[in-house]
Design a protein that fits this description.
Blueprint (H helix, E strand, L loop, with lengths): L1 H10 L2 E3 L9 E6 L12 E10 L5 E11 L5 E6 L3 E5 L11 E8 L7 E7 L5 H8 L6 E5 L6 E8 L7 E11 L4 E12 L5 E10 L8 E2 L4 E5 L3 E13 L4 E13 L8 E5 L5 E6 L1
Parallel strand pairs: 10-17
Antiparallel strand pairs: 1-2, 2-5, 3-4, 3-7, 4-6, 7-8, 9-19, 10-18, 11-17, 12-16, 12-18, 12-19, 13-14, 13-15, 13-17
Amino acid sequence: MRYLKLVFSFSLLISAKCFSQVPEGINFQLVVRNFSNTLISNSGLSMRVQIKQGSSIGNIVYSEKHTVSTNQQGLASFVIGQGVVLSGNFSIINWANGPYFASFGVDFTGQNNFQDYGTQQLMSVPYALYSKSTGSINNSIQHYNSGNSSELIATLPITPSSPYQKMVIYSIPIANLNTNDILQASCEFEVTNPYTYNVMIASQIILANNPTDITGIEITEANGFNVDQNMHHGVVIKTGTLTCSANYPMKYVNVIGYSASTQALANHNLIIEQDYGRLSVLVFK
């Protein structure tokens, strides 16, 4: 039982970033640790992905294998749907007939002796795949992004208790949204904790009236994870989908963040960077 809890805790480290692409697939990134909670840096490994329908123990409709390498921060990237096929056909999955779950197996030696590495529900299937499944292909797709940068973009105050000090990390203006337009927002950024205590960071993507608003229509839930002490370049990745319920001449897609620790001192901040990416928004009209 203890082993199962350990594996489940690692599944919480897995985050998806999904967006429309050709050929079809789901971009996926995860921070890899072994079963002793040691970060696996600059290493090759094998990853098995199983897509299960209905629940985390549902029928396996598709399975594939990836050979991946982690970077210095233990980050591995691959595209679900473009691995070596073990069973099934990714292109004929009916995404409208979900929910679907991704179960992961890992072999740290790069072979095929996979150990259970956790399961995560695919909360936001790329809308292009969903449209293909349902036959509902939209007339146009608009793409907005904040651009790439390796520069510091924000310092996020660490507060010891509620109410937490929220702030906007990214913001993108979106004009002329119409009823039933679908927004798919995906963001990623780096966070550095230079202190000798762990810090919780939470983030959320919203549709707001102004670029400085910290409240609005929810695109993703507000959730977070712990950033270990003296940890550099922890990666936060979020994705979500929203169907517009009205016409909006002008809105802003904002990424909101806040951090907390009971050990926080005055003027302590997490350092927010975007070395790995940006805020990206697709509008399906």
